[in-house]
């Protein structure tokens, strides 16, 4: 995945609950008439589904289906982010093909939940709250983090 520029920051909807830990939805998801491109990440952290618009390849929904292997960090992440209107897109390097990719690690910080989809750590964060994208050395998206309130964090962690 790589970043693609947006004209303005989107109104991103985030829902946390005890059954499906987090669902993140971009406005284009509700306008979609075709079947989205689907990418799945699985690992010790759980199962993550990502849906991309079939025409623009832009990310339109992220669903953390389950997270049995959440790693808890009792501190804030405080990601220093470059605040620009971006989203993730399927890149030419991934072939733009849906399927099963990579592994998933989920880390619960006090202020953010981090969904790492590559083993390389994020070197920088880009985006606007509540969702930031972590970029690796090659400027590819290696993680995303979603901001949460203590009540949402506690709900998700108690259910796991």
Automatic annotation (TrEMBL):
It comes from Kribbella turkmenica. It comes from the Bacteria. This is Uncharacterized protein.
